[in-house]
Amino acid sequence: MGIQNLFAAGGIVMWPLLAFSVLGVALIIERIRFWVRINQRQNRVVRDVLNLYRLDNVVGAMDKLQKNADLPLARIFLAALELEEPNPEEFRLALESESQAEIPVLKRFQNLFETIISLAPLLGLLGTVLGLITSFASLNLGDVGGSKTASVTAGISEALVSTASGLIVAIFILMFANTFRGLYQRQIALIQEYGGQLELLYRRRYERGEKTYATTR
């Protein structure tokens, strides 16, 4: 069955399903690029920053973070390290506040994915119902077994195309949405882990009375 025949069989609901498919693919591509960039660079950058800070090279750590400010953890660290002489409680609050601010970035488009996953099967079901209504409307009860009955059977078969299309769109989007949700949860765990390490290092420097910040240029 060609694309044109597929759309003819599925009825009018195939157009919103096509729009959902195009939108879903565009969002998936954006999220893949986002997570690939983070997974390729972020862990290495954060480990380097923690090592620099552990070696009392605060300026080097700040420079490293500023050069990688497109990464969520780098922005979180910068928000805390750019404070001038904060006490440990203020430092912790800065980490937590910026972490909360990064959550919408990490969860971006999640609501759109969930909307597509919910609506696509319903649109497919709507297409089937409309197809059945059209098919039975053309049925002549006095012509049971005749040519009109055969056309009704064919119409029912074609109407099911919309349901199948809706399920395909929903399943496809669901697989990627669950993958992105898993990456988000892993990122939250890393933020807590690395943020805790930085906070611990800061507390040690603060208790020793060392300079805990670097003047930004």
TrEMBL record:
The annotated topology with respect to the bilayer is: Multi-pass membrane protein
Q: Which residues form the signal peptide?
A: none
Boundaries of every MotA/TolQ/ExbB proton channel domain copy:
70-192
Primary location: membrane
The record's section on Pfam families has: MotA_ExbB
GO CC terms, sorted: plasma membrane
Q: Which residues cross the membrane?
A: 6-29, 116-139, 159-177
One biological process GO term for this chain? protein import
Q: Enumerate the UniProt keywords alphabetically.
A: Cell membrane, Membrane, Protein transport, Transmembrane, Transmembrane helix, Transport
Q: Which family does it belong to?
A: Belongs to the exbB/tolQ family.
Show the PANTHER family listed in the entry: BIOPOLYMER TRANSPORT PROTEIN EXBB (PTHR30625:SF15), PROTEIN TOLQ (PTHR30625)
Protein name stated in the entry: ExbB, biopolymer transport protein ExbB
Species this protein is from:
Nostoc sphaeroides CCNUC1
Q: What is the lineage of its organism?
A: Bacteria, Bacillati, Cyanobacteriota, Cyanophyceae, Nostocales
